[in-house]
Each structure stands twice: as C-alpha cells, then as structure tokens.
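Following up on my earlier thread - several people asked me to post the actual chain instead of describing it. Fair enough. Here it is, all 332 residues.
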Amino acid sequence: MPGFRFTNPEEEELVQGVKVLVTGATGLLGRAVCKEFQTNGWNVIGTGYRRAQPRFLRCDMTDEDAVRRLLHEHKPDVIVHCAAERRPDVMERHTEAAVHLNVHATGMLAKEAAACGALFIYISTDYVFDGRSPPYGEDDCPNPVNVYGRSKLEGERESLRHCPGAVILRVPVLFGEVESVTESAVTALWLKVEEAAEDHCGALDHLLQRFPTDTRDVAAVCRKLAERARQDPSIRGIFHFSGKEQMTKYEMAVAMAQAFNLPSNHLVPLTEQPAAAAARPINSQLNCSRLELLNLSANRLPLKVEGHQERSSGSRIGLRFWPALGFCLQRF
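Reply from S.P.:
Thanks for posting it. Predicted structure:
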C-alpha cells in the first residue's frame, strides 16, 4: 500500500483495547513516547519514514491519502504527533520542505484525527516565544524569532483549527537515550567535552538560557494527558512542560564532564550572541503551572550517583540533569 506498510506482516498480531498512534516513532522523543505508552498497557502503533524498518509502519506524513488510509485502517483512540523538522538552522536553509511537514502535514493529520474521533496531541516548542519576557504562560502572546518557531506556531493553529479538542504540548530542548550523540542538541555537546583528549579549546555559548528536558518525562506527560483527556473533555488546548534546571550550553558541557570524571578546563564560555543561521530566543522559560495544578506533570526522581553532590556543589547544575545525562551517554 503506497505511503505506509508493515515490515513483517506475518508477525502482526490482532490487538484489542486502547490504541495510540505515535508519529515520528523513530525519533528521539517518539521512541520514548512509544515505550511509555507500551509499558503502561496501551496498544502502540508507531510510524516513521526513512528509519521505519523493521519496527514501525512506514508512512510519509505529507501524503494525504496515505495518512487517511493509515488512520482508517488502524482507528487509533489517541494520536501523539512527534514527527517534525526540529533543527532551526536546517529550516532556514530548507524552509519550504520543512514547513510542509511542520504545518501542512500537521493540519492534515489533525483534520483526519477529528474525522475518526481520535484525541490529537501535538508536540510544539518553547521557540514560539521571543525570549524577552520569561517565564511564559500558555496565554502569553507568541512571537517566534526564527522559521522553526513560526512553523510550530502555525502547526499549533492548524491543529486547533481542524481539531478543536486537540492538546498542544510545548516543550524546550530535549535529551534522552540517543542513537548517536548528535541526535540531541544537548548530547551533541559531548563532542566538545571529548576534545580535551586532543588538547583542543571548546568554545561554547554561555548566553542563551536553556531548560534541558528528559524525553522520558515528556513521554509520561503525554500519556497522562491522553488518559485524563479521554475522561475529561476540559483537558484541551495548550500546556507547557519543561525541566526545571536553567543552563547554558557551556554549563551543560561542564555537567557532562563532571558526570564522567573528565576535565572541563578546555571549555571556554562565550557571552556574546552566537553566530548561527537561525536566531534563538535568549530565555524562553515555560511556566508549567497548568499541568502541575492538574497533577499531570512528570519529574523523574534523580538517581543516586556517588560523588554527585560534591561535584555539583556551588554550581547551577542540579540533582536531576547530572545523573540523567550519565544514563543517556553511558553507551558512548
């Protein structure tokens, strides 16, 4: 069937119960979302494109006919839309194709979700804000400073236009169990940490404030929202979720060095606006009180790591980010 297919149809099993369809299931967040729902007893259908085989359905999310057939055949109760172009610099260079995925495909999927009665959860970003007046609540006026932020904001609007009961979840920069260190902007900093062994100087941004967030926590929030929204129709509209620890890229890299007992004196903090293809907000901190008041937030308890308290004492590197990094990077 054009647009999507099972890789091993002979192994397909008839499933019963509540179904969730996760787009972008091969990606950093999508993998965590699939795992979270599956662990909690949901029937999970994951889609991907270039990396779909052999675990997931192959589906081009920009192919309207394929998306419609996918939903009509599998009839999901919930759709978590993780698929997106999420690299701001790439979007500045390849705007048309990226907007087609982030905006038009999102609107099409939301429309089909409404038609089949599925709850639609759309993953958005803190980059819908300009970073000048943090923290930002759900009702604050967006003002994105780059193409990526504008595309995700338009994706939000398309979601709510075609599916008024949709849930929008805005999140900041993510990290998690990566397949390669460059899969996340956070774990990609590991390459700078490793430069110490080659006697290189690693210059890193120490101006833009970020709130690195564990994909496992985001996945748990998605599941909680899905479960509550299926029971309570007032759970709709925009929600914010974010890690609590505020750090620059320089501070993240120092945390990585600490986590693996590596030197960090070769890392150099830069306090001027970094040169990049896409502008970034200086501080797009999200106010997450709506989720918290509804008891729908998720914050993984920190692992007990020997020596952690001593190494992080006197810094802004908290008790959660440090051990989570170790978990994500231990295979590398």
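The chain has two domains: 9-175+211-240, 181-210+245-283+302-329. That should answer part of your original question.
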